[in-house]
Specification:
The structure is a homodimer of 144-residue chains. The first copy, chain A, has 144 residues and is mainly alpha-helical. Chain A contains 7 helices and 3 strands. The first copy, chain A, has one domain: Winged helix-like DNA-binding domain superfamily/Winged helix DNA-binding domain (Arc Repressor Mutant, subunit A, Orthogonal Bundle). Chain A is globular, with a radius of gyration of 18 Å. Chain A binds a DNA duplex (30 and 30 nucleotides) through helix 1, helix 2 and helix 4. Chains A, B: It is found in: Cytoplasm.
DNA sequence: AAAGAGTATCTTGTGCACAACTATCTTGTA
DNA sequence: TACAAGATAGTTGTGCACAAGATACTCTTT
Protein backbone atom coordinates (compact mmCIF):
# COMPACT_ATOMS: atom_id res chain seq x y z
CA UNK A 1 0.00 0.00 0.00
CA UNK A 2 2.71 2.40 0.98
CA UNK A 3 4.35 1.26 -2.22
CA UNK A 4 1.35 2.39 -4.24
CA UNK A 5 1.28 5.73 -2.51
CA UNK A 6 4.89 6.30 -3.37
CA UNK A 7 4.15 5.37 -6.96
CA UNK A 8 1.25 7.78 -7.12
CA UNK A 9 3.45 10.48 -5.79
CA UNK A 10 6.17 9.72 -8.30
CA UNK A 11 3.68 9.54 -11.14
CA UNK A 12 2.57 13.08 -10.43
CA UNK A 13 6.10 14.33 -10.20
CA UNK A 14 6.89 12.59 -13.48
CA UNK A 15 4.00 14.35 -15.17
CA UNK A 16 5.05 17.68 -13.71
CA UNK A 17 8.68 17.27 -14.59
CA UNK A 18 8.16 15.75 -18.04
CA UNK A 19 5.72 18.48 -18.93
CA UNK A 20 8.38 21.10 -18.29
CA UNK A 21 10.96 19.09 -20.22
CA UNK A 22 8.68 18.94 -23.24
CA UNK A 23 7.92 22.64 -22.97
CA UNK A 24 11.66 23.21 -23.05
CA UNK A 25 11.84 21.25 -26.31
CA UNK A 26 9.70 23.88 -28.01
CA UNK A 27 11.86 26.73 -26.79
CA UNK A 28 14.60 26.58 -29.46
CA UNK A 29 11.97 26.85 -32.18
CA UNK A 30 9.63 29.36 -30.54
CA UNK A 31 12.08 31.72 -28.87
CA UNK A 32 13.59 33.06 -32.12
CA UNK A 33 10.08 34.27 -32.91
CA UNK A 34 9.59 35.72 -29.44
CA UNK A 35 6.91 33.16 -28.58
CA UNK A 36 6.41 31.17 -25.39
CA UNK A 37 4.79 27.74 -25.22
CA UNK A 38 1.45 29.01 -23.83
CA UNK A 39 1.43 31.70 -26.53
CA UNK A 40 2.06 28.97 -29.09
CA UNK A 41 -0.87 26.97 -27.72
CA UNK A 42 -3.15 29.98 -27.93
CA UNK A 43 -2.09 30.85 -31.47
CA UNK A 44 -2.46 27.27 -32.70
CA UNK A 45 -5.91 27.01 -31.17
CA UNK A 46 -6.79 30.28 -32.89
CA UNK A 47 -5.72 28.92 -36.28
CA UNK A 48 -7.98 25.94 -35.68
CA UNK A 49 -10.96 27.74 -34.16
CA UNK A 50 -10.86 30.84 -36.34
CA UNK A 51 -12.16 34.09 -34.89
CA UNK A 52 -13.64 33.33 -31.48
CA UNK A 53 -14.06 34.62 -27.94
CA UNK A 54 -11.58 34.56 -25.07
CA UNK A 55 -13.78 32.00 -23.38
CA UNK A 56 -13.51 29.71 -26.43
CA UNK A 57 -9.72 29.89 -26.25
CA UNK A 58 -9.83 29.18 -22.55
CA UNK A 59 -11.86 26.03 -23.11
CA UNK A 60 -9.55 24.88 -25.91
CA UNK A 61 -6.33 25.45 -23.99
CA UNK A 62 -7.64 24.94 -20.44
CA UNK A 63 -5.99 28.24 -19.61
CA UNK A 64 -7.46 30.56 -17.00
CA UNK A 65 -8.83 33.97 -17.90
CA UNK A 66 -6.27 35.56 -15.61
CA UNK A 67 -3.60 33.89 -17.70
CA UNK A 68 -5.18 34.63 -21.07
CA UNK A 69 -5.94 38.33 -20.61
CA UNK A 70 -2.33 39.56 -20.28
CA UNK A 71 -1.07 36.91 -22.71
CA UNK A 72 -3.52 38.00 -25.40
CA UNK A 73 -2.75 41.64 -24.76
CA UNK A 74 0.95 41.01 -25.33
CA UNK A 75 0.20 39.23 -28.61
CA UNK A 76 -2.17 42.04 -29.64
CA UNK A 77 0.48 44.65 -28.80
CA UNK A 78 2.80 42.85 -31.19
CA UNK A 79 0.16 42.92 -33.91
CA UNK A 80 -0.31 39.13 -34.11
CA UNK A 81 -4.01 39.30 -33.25
CA UNK A 82 -6.78 41.79 -32.57
CA UNK A 83 -9.05 42.08 -29.53
CA UNK A 84 -12.44 43.68 -30.11
CA UNK A 85 -15.40 43.81 -27.83
CA UNK A 86 -18.24 42.05 -29.58
CA UNK A 87 -20.98 44.29 -30.97
CA UNK A 88 -23.59 41.59 -30.47
CA UNK A 89 -22.64 40.75 -26.88
CA UNK A 90 -20.78 43.50 -25.09
CA UNK A 91 -19.48 41.06 -22.46
CA UNK A 92 -17.54 39.08 -25.00
CA UNK A 93 -14.18 39.97 -26.53
CA UNK A 94 -13.57 38.70 -30.05
CA UNK A 95 -10.07 37.44 -30.90
CA UNK A 96 -8.86 37.33 -34.51
CA UNK A 97 -5.52 36.51 -36.04
CA UNK A 98 -4.01 39.32 -38.09
CA UNK A 99 -2.08 38.60 -41.31
CA UNK A 100 1.11 38.81 -39.21
CA UNK A 101 -0.34 36.16 -36.92
CA UNK A 102 -1.40 33.97 -39.84
CA UNK A 103 2.14 34.30 -41.18
CA UNK A 104 3.39 32.29 -38.20
CA UNK A 105 1.70 29.08 -39.38
CA UNK A 106 4.98 27.73 -40.80
CA UNK A 107 6.58 28.28 -37.39
CA UNK A 108 3.89 26.16 -35.75
CA UNK A 109 4.50 23.44 -38.29
CA UNK A 110 8.24 23.65 -37.72
CA UNK A 111 7.68 23.34 -33.96
CA UNK A 112 5.58 20.22 -34.45
CA UNK A 113 8.18 18.66 -36.73
CA UNK A 114 10.97 19.47 -34.28
CA UNK A 115 9.01 17.86 -31.48
CA UNK A 116 8.16 14.77 -33.47
CA UNK A 117 11.85 14.22 -34.10
CA UNK A 118 12.81 14.87 -30.49
CA UNK A 119 10.31 12.50 -28.91
CA UNK A 120 11.88 9.36 -30.37
CA UNK A 121 8.61 7.46 -30.13
CA UNK A 122 6.72 5.51 -32.75
CA UNK A 123 3.29 6.69 -33.75
CA UNK A 124 1.78 3.73 -31.95
CA UNK A 125 3.60 4.57 -28.73
CA UNK A 126 2.44 8.15 -28.99
CA UNK A 127 -1.17 7.06 -29.53
CA UNK A 128 -1.07 4.68 -26.60
CA UNK A 129 0.37 7.23 -24.18
CA UNK A 130 -2.06 9.83 -25.41
CA UNK A 131 -4.99 7.49 -24.81
CA UNK A 132 -3.85 6.93 -21.23
CA UNK A 133 -3.48 10.65 -20.62
CA UNK A 134 -6.88 11.35 -22.15
CA UNK A 135 -8.53 8.73 -19.98
CA UNK A 136 -6.92 10.15 -16.87
CA UNK A 137 -7.91 13.71 -17.78
CA UNK A 138 -11.44 12.56 -18.50
CA UNK A 139 -11.62 10.83 -15.14
CA UNK A 140 -10.41 13.93 -13.34
CA UNK A 141 -12.92 16.10 -15.21
CA UNK A 142 -15.78 13.69 -14.54
CA UNK A 143 -15.05 11.43 -11.55
CA UNK A 144 -18.55 9.96 -12.02
CA UNK B 1 2.58 12.37 -41.64
CA UNK B 2 0.65 15.50 -40.89
CA UNK B 3 -1.50 13.24 -38.77
CA UNK B 4 1.51 12.23 -36.68
CA UNK B 5 2.55 15.84 -36.20
CA UNK B 6 -0.88 16.69 -34.92
CA UNK B 7 -0.65 13.77 -32.52
CA UNK B 8 2.71 14.94 -31.25
CA UNK B 9 1.31 18.36 -30.71
CA UNK B 10 -1.67 17.01 -28.82
CA UNK B 11 0.49 14.72 -26.74
CA UNK B 12 2.50 17.65 -25.49
CA UNK B 13 -0.59 19.65 -24.73
CA UNK B 14 -2.03 16.66 -22.89
CA UNK B 15 1.07 16.44 -20.74
CA UNK B 16 1.00 20.16 -20.05
CA UNK B 17 -2.68 20.25 -19.27
CA UNK B 18 -2.82 17.03 -17.26
CA UNK B 19 0.15 18.13 -15.20
CA UNK B 20 -1.72 21.24 -14.11
CA UNK B 21 -4.86 19.21 -13.40
CA UNK B 22 -2.91 16.88 -11.14
CA UNK B 23 -1.23 19.80 -9.39
CA UNK B 24 -4.70 21.17 -8.73
CA UNK B 25 -5.61 17.86 -7.06
CA UNK B 26 -3.02 18.52 -4.38
CA UNK B 27 -4.31 21.99 -3.67
CA UNK B 28 -7.20 21.11 -1.32
CA UNK B 29 -4.79 19.19 0.90
CA UNK B 30 -1.78 21.52 0.72
CA UNK B 31 -3.42 24.91 0.78
CA UNK B 32 -4.79 24.62 4.35
CA UNK B 33 -1.15 24.28 5.40
CA UNK B 34 -0.06 27.20 3.26
CA UNK B 35 1.95 24.96 0.94
CA UNK B 36 2.18 24.99 -2.85
CA UNK B 37 2.89 21.92 -4.98
CA UNK B 38 6.54 22.85 -5.70
CA UNK B 39 7.04 23.52 -2.00
CA UNK B 40 5.55 20.10 -1.28
CA UNK B 41 7.98 18.51 -3.74
CA UNK B 42 10.93 20.23 -2.09
CA UNK B 43 9.86 19.26 1.42
CA UNK B 44 9.22 15.63 0.46
CA UNK B 45 12.59 15.38 -1.23
CA UNK B 46 14.14 16.84 1.93
CA UNK B 47 12.49 14.18 4.10
CA UNK B 48 13.96 11.54 1.79
CA UNK B 49 17.41 13.06 1.28
CA UNK B 50 17.93 14.37 4.79
CA UNK B 51 20.11 17.42 5.27
CA UNK B 52 21.63 18.32 1.90
CA UNK B 53 22.63 21.17 -0.40
CA UNK B 54 20.41 23.32 -2.62
CA UNK B 55 22.02 21.62 -5.60
CA UNK B 56 20.95 18.21 -4.29
CA UNK B 57 17.35 19.40 -4.06
CA UNK B 58 17.57 20.83 -7.56
CA UNK B 59 18.69 17.49 -8.96
CA UNK B 60 15.96 15.63 -7.05
CA UNK B 61 13.14 17.95 -8.10
CA UNK B 62 14.55 19.14 -11.45
CA UNK B 63 13.83 22.65 -10.23
CA UNK B 64 16.02 25.55 -11.27
CA UNK B 65 18.12 27.44 -8.76
CA UNK B 66 16.22 30.64 -9.60
CA UNK B 67 13.07 28.81 -8.55
CA UNK B 68 14.55 27.17 -5.46
CA UNK B 69 16.26 30.17 -3.88
CA UNK B 70 13.13 32.25 -3.21
CA UNK B 71 11.06 29.12 -2.52
CA UNK B 72 13.49 27.93 0.13
CA UNK B 73 13.73 31.38 1.64
CA UNK B 74 9.95 31.50 2.06
CA UNK B 75 9.98 28.10 3.78
CA UNK B 76 12.90 29.19 5.98
CA UNK B 77 11.08 32.40 6.91
CA UNK B 78 8.19 30.25 8.10
CA UNK B 79 10.55 28.15 10.21
CA UNK B 80 10.03 24.90 8.28
CA UNK B 81 13.70 24.57 7.37
CA UNK B 82 17.06 26.22 7.94
CA UNK B 83 19.56 27.54 5.38
CA UNK B 84 23.20 27.63 6.50
CA UNK B 85 26.26 28.23 4.45
CA UNK B 86 28.44 25.15 4.73
CA UNK B 87 31.54 25.47 6.88
CA UNK B 88 33.43 22.91 4.81
CA UNK B 89 32.57 24.44 1.42
CA UNK B 90 31.63 28.08 1.57
CA UNK B 91 29.95 27.88 -1.85
CA UNK B 92 27.35 25.45 -0.65
CA UNK B 93 24.22 26.19 1.37
CA UNK B 94 23.00 23.40 3.66
CA UNK B 95 19.27 22.82 3.92
CA UNK B 96 17.78 21.07 6.98
CA UNK B 97 14.22 20.43 8.06
CA UNK B 98 13.32 21.94 11.42
CA UNK B 99 11.04 20.10 13.88
CA UNK B 100 8.18 22.21 12.48
CA UNK B 101 9.11 20.96 9.01
CA UNK B 102 9.33 17.36 10.18
CA UNK B 103 5.91 17.78 11.75
CA UNK B 104 4.42 18.12 8.24
CA UNK B 105 5.16 14.48 7.34
CA UNK B 106 1.55 13.44 8.06
CA UNK B 107 0.39 16.14 5.63
CA UNK B 108 2.59 14.68 2.91
CA UNK B 109 1.12 11.26 3.58
CA UNK B 110 -2.39 12.67 3.50
CA UNK B 111 -1.67 14.33 0.16
CA UNK B 112 -0.43 11.04 -1.29
CA UNK B 113 -3.51 9.20 -0.04
CA UNK B 114 -5.82 11.88 -1.43
CA UNK B 115 -4.13 11.64 -4.78
CA UNK B 116 -4.21 7.86 -4.85
CA UNK B 117 -7.96 7.99 -4.40
CA UNK B 118 -8.45 10.74 -6.97
CA UNK B 119 -6.52 9.08 -9.77
CA UNK B 120 -8.92 6.18 -10.14
CA UNK B 121 -6.24 3.96 -11.65
CA UNK B 122 -5.10 0.49 -10.69
CA UNK B 123 -1.58 0.00 -9.46
CA UNK B 124 -0.74 -1.75 -12.73
CA UNK B 125 -2.05 1.16 -14.80
CA UNK B 126 -0.02 3.57 -12.69
CA UNK B 127 3.13 1.50 -13.14
CA UNK B 128 2.65 1.23 -16.88
CA UNK B 129 2.10 4.94 -17.37
CA UNK B 130 5.01 5.72 -15.11
CA UNK B 131 7.29 3.45 -17.12
CA UNK B 132 6.31 5.25 -20.33
CA UNK B 133 6.93 8.66 -18.77
CA UNK B 134 10.29 7.53 -17.37
CA UNK B 135 11.38 6.19 -20.75
CA UNK B 136 10.42 9.43 -22.44
CA UNK B 137 12.20 11.53 -19.81
CA UNK B 138 15.28 9.33 -20.11
CA UNK B 139 15.26 9.73 -23.88
CA UNK B 140 15.00 13.50 -23.58
CA UNK B 141 17.83 13.58 -21.05
CA UNK B 142 20.05 11.30 -23.13
CA UNK B 143 19.01 11.34 -26.80
CA UNK B 144 21.96 9.02 -27.48
C1' DA C 1 51.91 32.42 -4.98
C1' DA C 2 48.92 33.65 -9.06
C1' DA C 3 45.99 32.79 -12.97
C1' DG C 4 42.43 30.33 -15.03
C1' DA C 5 38.72 26.89 -15.24
C1' DG C 6 34.89 25.16 -13.22
C1' DT C 7 31.21 25.23 -9.69
C1' DA C 8 27.57 26.98 -6.51
C1' DT C 9 24.77 30.43 -5.49
C1' DC C 10 22.46 34.83 -5.98
C1' DT C 11 20.09 38.72 -8.52
C1' DT C 12 17.11 40.66 -11.79
C1' DG C 13 13.58 40.69 -15.11
C1' DT C 14 9.75 38.71 -17.99
C1' DG C 15 6.02 35.78 -18.38
C1' DC C 16 2.73 32.14 -16.74
C1' DA C 17 -0.69 29.92 -12.92
C1' DC C 18 -4.15 30.78 -10.05
C1' DA C 19 -7.11 32.87 -6.40
C1' DA C 20 -10.05 36.60 -4.93
C1' DC C 21 -12.48 40.46 -5.99
C1' DT C 22 -14.83 43.83 -9.12
C1' DA C 23 -17.49 45.57 -13.07
C1' DT C 24 -20.53 44.87 -16.73
C1' DC C 25 -23.89 42.72 -19.28
C1' DT C 26 -27.78 39.19 -20.45
C1' DT C 27 -31.62 36.65 -19.27
C1' DG C 28 -35.41 34.78 -16.72
C1' DT C 29 -39.00 36.03 -13.66
C1' DA C 30 -42.24 38.79 -11.35
C1' DT D 1 -40.48 47.64 -16.49
C1' DA D 2 -37.58 46.12 -12.68
C1' DC D 3 -34.75 42.97 -10.40
C1' DA D 4 -32.15 38.89 -9.11
C1' DA D 5 -29.17 35.29 -10.96
C1' DG D 6 -25.66 33.99 -13.66
C1' DA D 7 -22.11 34.65 -17.15
C1' DT D 8 -18.01 37.16 -19.21
C1' DA D 9 -14.05 39.90 -18.56
C1' DG D 10 -10.95 42.57 -16.11
C1' DT D 11 -7.82 43.66 -11.99
C1' DT D 12 -4.69 42.70 -8.37
C1' DG D 13 -1.52 40.06 -5.79
C1' DT D 14 1.44 35.94 -4.71
C1' DG D 15 4.23 32.42 -6.25
C1' DC D 16 6.58 29.55 -9.83
C1' DA D 17 9.63 28.94 -14.50
C1' DC D 18 13.42 30.29 -16.67
C1' DA D 19 17.09 33.18 -18.84
C1' DA D 20 21.06 36.17 -18.36
C1' DG D 21 24.43 38.06 -15.82
C1' DA D 22 27.05 38.73 -11.35
C1' DT D 23 29.51 37.08 -7.28
C1' DA D 24 32.23 34.16 -4.65
C1' DC D 25 34.61 30.16 -3.91
C1' DT D 26 37.66 25.79 -4.96
C1' DC D 27 41.03 23.42 -7.41
C1' DT D 28 44.42 22.74 -10.78
C1' DT D 29 48.13 24.36 -13.28
C1' DT D 30 51.89 27.15 -13.88
Amino acid sequence: MTETRVLDDLLCFDLYSLSRMVTALYRPVLEPHGLTYPQYLVLVSLTRLGTCSIGDIGRATRLDHGTLTPLLRRLADRGLLTLDRSAADARSVTVSLTPDGEALRPVFHEAQCHLGESLGMTEQQVRRLQTTLHQLAEHLDNPA
